[in-house]
Request: fold
Amino acid sequence: MNPKQNPHFHFLCLLPAVVLGLASPLVPALRAGEPAAVVAAPEFTDEQKNLLKALDAELTRFDAMLEKDADVQHKATVKAFLDGFKDRRDAMKKANFDQGKYDEIRFDINVEYQRLAMWLAAPLTPPPAPKKMQGGGEVAVYKLSPSPANKADVSAALSALDSEIKRLEAAATSAADKAKIKAIKDSRADLNKEFTKAKWDAIIAQMKPATR
Reply:
């Protein structure tokens, strides 16, 4: 009998292909079980290491200052900023040193730290009457029109806003006034998440009745 006509011969010819077909799904599985490649930590110069240590110290100082904030709502709002700074710091330590990003985060931390310090500063006298703008009857903050694209503009506007909210809160006596201040603080917290012209105009409109 011709071997090629033998069914056993055909089976033996196909056997290697069958074995390979059964084994092939195991290859990716074995590779999947392999340990992930370890990404080497970036190497920093001594100067860069010192800069990162200074950044850690600034965040520690910020943490200590925030612990003094007795206003639960305000403290939570600022903590969201602080947590964001820490995430950015952690990301910087996992990548090659970027001087631009370092300068930016130091600037942002300093702005928020100074704003928190102003918030915590206890007034030595009862809250003064709001100062009037020359040629108008509105408090200065209500005349501001900060550009969302200008970081310094936004920072100055938020500082003025925080001062006015604090003044209004100190002057609030009725339950309705206090409820109004709480709503204003909620809007202020939303500005931290995303500063837009529309949100700024909305909180200013929300605050105006509280001054009448």
